[in-house]
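Repro:
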Amino acid sequence: MENLISLVNKIQRACTALGDHGEESALPTLWDELPAIAVVGGQSSGKSSVLESVVGKDFLPRGSGIVTRRPLVLQLHRIDEGREYAEFLHLPRKRFTDFAAVRKEISDETDRETGRSKQVSTVPIHLSIYSPNVVNLTLIDLPGLTKVAIDGQHESIVQDIENMVRSFIEKPNCIILAISPANQDLATSDAIKISREVDPRGERTFGVLTKIDLMDKGTDAVDILEGKSYKLQFPWIGVVNRSQADINKSVDMIAARRREREYFSNSPEYKHLAHRMGSEHLGKMLSKHLETVIKSRIPGLQSLISKTIAELESELSRLGKPIASDAGGKLYMIMEICRCFDQIFKEHLDGVRPGGDKVYNVFDTQLPAALKRLQFDKQLSMENVRKIITEADGYQPHLIAPEQGYRRLIESSLVTVRGPAEAAVDAVHAILKDLVHKAVNETMELKQYPSLRVEVTNAACESLDRMKNESKRATLQLVDMESGYLTVEFFRKLPQDIEKGGNPTHSIFDRYNDAYLRRIGTTVLSYVNMVVASLRNSIPKSIVYCQVREAKRSLLDYFFADLGKKETKQLGSMLDEDPAIMQRRANLAQRLELYRSAQSEIDAVAWAK
């Protein structure tokens, strides 16, 4: 069972070392889930004397006004033999055998946190005492409740202390040790008043009555100690502390304990209660109760820790890795993030993620529709055919067939295909840019670094622009090739005219009859349609080769080449993570370390059992 209190002691020390003091924050707190005994009392209630009696040593600062200004987590460790000593968590390699030095260090460490302004702080001081004269026990000594601020203290300190005390004792895992002086009316006890507010049924409150020996003659505290005046679930315990004269004379604490036992044993009023009175009984009873409570909380604590570890790991994963400090680390980190982005971009194109199908839609729907809308009939109207054929003949009519006229009619028709071809290039370019933005948004690592996000987006879009220009050049070349070299076989398969095609004696504007010109127009239209059908298949191939394939193969090649030339400072400027996220990650990592440590400690105790 002693292992259980030691277990909580270790976890509490880890909590303090890793910044978990139980205060409200955006991080999960383990401190609040640990069973603890908080010592509550008003000023001059004898609270410090009770703690020193349990420990058996003078070690707490004394003086007028508010002396305790930070929570003191007092961890008592029973040793079989050897010299008593103390250790502070903030001085891990230093042992104190002089308890006057312990008292001074408590005061000095309080001032380090709060300054000499006499203000209070919720950050605890951890003190471990090893002695054969103590039981295994952990107590949290809280600042004494007060009603008036003294000189040098802000008026709010009265409320500040009350708020701090309440923040500890209102938690369901906190056991309240309420210290009240017997020589004052219990109805005015600060400790009982605040304990009743947070624990109205007294289910986790232990009442301790001090200064019983200082009560007015003819009065006693029997009704209180027997639970008749104010009933709690646990029996009241009376203690007799050293008097101020004893403290001034440095009366030995062990001797004081003996005198306390004698007082209760020899007092007629308290003789029947002597077996459960005194600081020794108080320490043993609290130790036993704390062990029982810890044992009952272990299963729930294990479950909570496992759940919280999973949540912390999940959030840390979402926040990504911390930034490397050296140039090589930064460069590697940027490259890895870019590879993640590039992979997501490829997945969009390959159909693993949505969006790539839009490229096929351009080829299957948009391009054919645009080609179909081309008005070749207007280009090959009777008037236009007549005009181009006659102009192509120049001053001398053609002999067999108007070849130059054919060529000009075909060229003027095919040039209109450039529009749909360019539109297809632009449409695919727009889709690729949209997929770049989608991939950027879906790359979690890029969300960490706004500057890198902009750099990658700009670099990818610039690459796409270069690919678009190359694609447009290659695609329009396909159209121009069809205009520059006609398929002769098409024309050779046409039936040949026997007639010359007109009366050369007519004027140049009436050289050919309508039937002949209509036939030329029909022939040109057939040829153009054949070419357009061919381009409908070859234009997509050109676009895919120059844009889609290149985007998959070398989207960030220029960016990577430029990246290798940058210095550490320039690389660092790309990894300009939000300071709030950096702090959050550090806090989460620290809290995760705490929970893993606690899990390891609890598992070790569970296996030992």
